[in-house]
Amino acid sequence: MSFIKLSSRLVLKNGVSKVYIFQRNLTTQSLLKDKLREVIPIEIAKVNKVKTELSEKVLGNCTVSQAYGGMRDVKSMIYETSLLDKEEGIRFRGLTIPECQQQLTKANSGQEPLPEALLWLLMTGQIPTNQQTESVVNELRSRSQIPNETIKLLSSLPKEMHPMTQLVIGVMSLQTHSKFAKAYQNGVNKKEYWEYTYEDSMDLIARLPAIASQIYVQTYKTSGAVPQSNSTLDWSANFARMMGYNTHQFDELMRLYLVIHSDHEGGNVSAHATHLVGSALSDPYLSFAAGMNGLAGPLHGLANQEVLRWLYFLKQKLPTDRELSNEELANVVIETIRAGQVVPGYGHAVLRKTDPRYTVQREFALKHLPDYPLFKLVSQLYEIIPKVLTEHSRTKNPWPNVDAHSGVLLQYYGMTEENFYTVLFGVSRALGVLSNLVWSRALGFPLERPKSVTTEWVIKNVTP
User: Fold this and answer.
1) Quick check: 120 and 32 in contact, CB under 8 A?
2) 455: closest CA among 116, 136, 107, 67?
3) Nearest to residue 176, comparing CAs of 156, 195, 148, 155?
4) What is the tens place of the pLDDT at every residue in 212-265?
5) Which residues pair with 84 in a beta bridge?
6) Cβ distance 230 to 168 under 8 Å?
7) What is the pTM of this model?
8) Torsion sign, CA atoms 447, 450, 451, 454
9) Active-site amino acid positions
């Protein structure tokens, strides 16, 4: 099922070749959109049946503690593309990350799944064939050119501006071209909302690597030249080239990274913000920008930077002329806890075991960079921290999450600009949140409007 694109001809492992013309508009055939037209009526019927037969059934309760505690574990939202299990971790349309690695299409000579294959899975709920994955690769290529005004706008931004701020500005500049906003103004039928949401979402997903790589190059590289897209590569490899990385291993890391960060059910800040703003019938550009502003927060997308800073703090605090003992590292972890600080990269709001996204990154490191000193430190901490947290803190989950590892891999391959890491996260997260946005419009989900109460109301109305 693996493939590689050469020139304008796609050459498969079985020797079959096909030629593609990279031109597309709203009326041009899209295999992915055709598949959605096929599966959406089936899902609408399923949802209508659930609402008819189970409408008065209770999903769960909300305690006072949950209301004050960030609504943790309150079941009050439908989000179709992924589900997070406390023990197993994330499932993309029912598939675990190892299952995605096994079953989704890979690039030629590659071992990591293509994000384009995952996008098909998230959109349709079905594992794509090789031909279907090819079609997504080429559909994204055909949509990838960003307008000149966006290029000029990004070029005018100061280097001192945080990359996430630049990303949101770039996304918002594309909103002028929203097909959904134009269709809505022209009185499009509600049943067609999803089609224009799809068009905007695919345009945005296709263009994000060009926006992100321009931000990276002009902020951190001396030339500042606008990166050129390579129409012979898949989404991840092209992204890597535009940022200036030219190795097969980094291509593989990008494929892995963009897959595992893509979605984490609907309650996290970036997914929920995108879903919430989208429920107002804001177009995908406005909705995704809202999600990215949430992702930029220290408690969400910036967490992997905190991990790196803490790792370098450890290296500065402890001797560097020899290997550190487990006892030395444990004492520093205990000091961190006693100082009232969080041990970054450990614990999760939902998970109660090691995050499988951490595990697959660890496996990647063991395969490609087993002797890298920073990875060896992360591995040693993996042996120490869960036990220390169990003994010295009240955490319900002492195990590492995805952020405990991702920054280390990027550092190894030379991407040392920590402030940019959240932009990579954002490019990946578009796959999940925008796929769900298409489904929210297809299923006719209404404006989200939960009920809030005051502390005074709680005192008066909740029986002790």
Assistant:
1) yes
2) 67
3) 148
4) 999 999 999 987 677 788 889 999 999 999 999 999 999 999 999 999 999 999
5) 90
6) no
7) 0.91
8) negative
9) 300, 348, 403
